[in-house]
Amino acid sequence: MVVLLMTLVTLGAGCAKETTTDQNTNTTNLNEQASEDTNTAEVLPKGTIVVDAIDGTLTGAEPSTTNFITEISTGTVAYLGSKGATANYTINAPAAGTYKLHIKTSDDGTWKDSYRDADVTVNGQVVLHYYHKSQDTRGWKWFTLGNTSLKKGDNPVSFTKSNDMPASFTIDEFKFEPVILSE
Description:
It is a single chain. This protein is mainly beta and 183 residues long. Helices cover 0% and strands 53% of the residues. It has two domains: 5-32, no CATH class; 49-182, Jelly Rolls (Sandwich), CATH 2.60.120. The protein has no helices and 15 strands. The model is unreliable at 1-39 (pLDDT under 50).
């Protein structure tokens, strides 16, 4: 019997975390999240907020073949191809505190570094930047962007394509994982 192992690396601020999935048993060692292709159940820390990209609204660009939020063959996506194209969300946090933001994106590795860059705005302030490092992710992959503060209740969150390069910033979903909560 052949056992297939798939290893995904999640890059964070100066560190790499590894997730290994056994394709025969569909079990996952969850230091981070496995690719959705593994069909594994995901275990999330209490208070984690998960948002599907399709729940957003598009501003900053007219809907087109390079700017849209919809369902496609590989999942539901916010696809931002033009500088200033923005996917907007309202996140309801169960508690105020510091949360770690993770995004699930894909890359074919054909565009130069920084071509898919995006800024993340939370509660009206740009707080994080996704710096695109070109790589073939072979499907959807989780990346950690960093920590940000959320207040209890509604928090406007947006992702904005930050340059005019010809590659699109694309997300399938994102999550805020609690780090330090205050009631």
